[in-house]
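FORM 12-B: Structure-to-Sequence Request
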């Protein structure tokens, strides 16, 4: 029987997150002995042994509630990033922080500007909180910052810049982003999502943290889910001036990051050698994939992340399905709200990248 209690009308516009098929089911369906998952931009090398040790040390304390403000992790992040501790707020993944931002700042009818092809959580959360997403098309896969400025109206409350952009992997130029931040009116929040920050190797990438002191409307998002390899533990953080973060703190759950997650993140943060190792491996893998795509004559967006969006010159859904039969899981463009003739592949280990290229060549024959 259907419930008689109507949900908020904002929810009518929303779909339900479609999770991928469980790996075991795919194996059984196609009689495969192994699956290579290159679908969710997870770290193929796993996580630092120092994070594991830290979690093991913490195991016996899970009876106690976590520290609500994660003081030890914040203190280390503060030193690592060179920003005061009261300018850092931890979240249950950066996903939660995006929700806290829209919940704190979006009023009914407010507009939020974002790229037309970008991380879908911005749009979803703006809609849930009664706002209107205003989408500005990417130009050659890159944020059109001029176009985003031009889209500002009296209703604009916030602008999202995903840098590098998921799913295209592109970054915006250093000067262009700096000028943009300077031109956005001070009563509009600028959110720069840097989930893939640690993977960037292009020197033309803006370091945003030094700008926070000058711009009380700037908020930067980072995460332990990608290069640190701790996606399941759900730890992200926001960096912004203290009064912005105070608003988010008011709406967050008290114990939003758990004990094991805080311990693991701290252990992972202390192992910057591991981060450098993953960054180097990823850059080499990215180079390898790009060379192979060039050789195959297919185009892709130049990526600074740990994934590449490739134009497969036919339905991305079909290529997704043929790769799946061959034991390789990617995302089709449609699955990540991007162009229908693309797939997004996460950069894996050398062996995984080679298996992917072999399978893709086979599919595109
Ligand atoms: C993966 C990703 C996130 C989510 O990170 P969590 O910290 O795991 O919630 C945020 N933004 C972008 C652009 C991402 O690709």
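FORM 12-B RESPONSE
SEQUENCE OUT:
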């Amino acid at each position: 029987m259907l419930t008689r209690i109507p949900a908020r009308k904002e929810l009518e516009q929303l779909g339900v997150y479609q999770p991928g098929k469980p790996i075991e089911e795919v194996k059984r369906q196609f009689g495969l002995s192994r699956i290579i998952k290159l679908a969710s931009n997870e770290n193929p090398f796993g996580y630092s042994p120092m994070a594991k040790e830290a979690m093991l040390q913490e195991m016996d304390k899970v009876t106690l509630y976590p520290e609500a403000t994660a003081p030890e992790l914040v203190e280390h992040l503060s030193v690592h990033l060179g920003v005061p501790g009261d300018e850092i707020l931890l979240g249950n993944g950066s996903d939660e922080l995006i929700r806290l931002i829209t919940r704190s700042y979006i009023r009914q009818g407010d507009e939020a500007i974002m790229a037309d092809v970008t991380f879908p959580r911005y749009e979803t959360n703006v809609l849930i909180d009664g706002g209107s997403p205003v989408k500005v098309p990417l130009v050659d896969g890159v944020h059109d910052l001029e176009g985003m400025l031009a889209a500002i109206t009296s209703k604009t409350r916030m602008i999202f810049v995903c840098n590098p952009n998921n799913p295209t992997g592109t970054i915006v130029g250093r000067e262009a982003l700096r000028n943009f931040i300077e031109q956005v009116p001070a009563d509009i929040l600028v959110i720069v999502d840097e989930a893939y920050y640690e993977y960037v190797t292009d020197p033309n990438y803006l370091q945003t943290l030094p700008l926070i002191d000058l711009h009380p409307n700037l908020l930067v998002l980072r995460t332990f889910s990608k290069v640190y390899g701790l996606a399941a533990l759900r730890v992200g953080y926001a960096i912004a001036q203290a009064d912005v973060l105070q608003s988010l703190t008011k709406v967050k759950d008290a114990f939003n990051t758990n004990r094991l997650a805080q311990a693991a993140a701290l252990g992972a943060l202390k192992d910057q050698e591991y981060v450098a190792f993953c960054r180097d491996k990823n850059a080499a893998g990215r180079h390898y994939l790009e060379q192979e795509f060039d050789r195959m004559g297919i185009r892709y967006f130049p990526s600074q992340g740990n994934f590449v969006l490739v134009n497969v010159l036919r339905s991305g859904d079909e290529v997704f399905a043929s790769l799946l039969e061959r034991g390789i899981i990617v995302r089709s463009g449609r699955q990540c709200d991007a162009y229908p003739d693309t797939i997004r592949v996460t950069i894996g280990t050398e062996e995984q990248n080679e298996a992917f290229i072999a399978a893709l060549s086979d599919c595109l024959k």
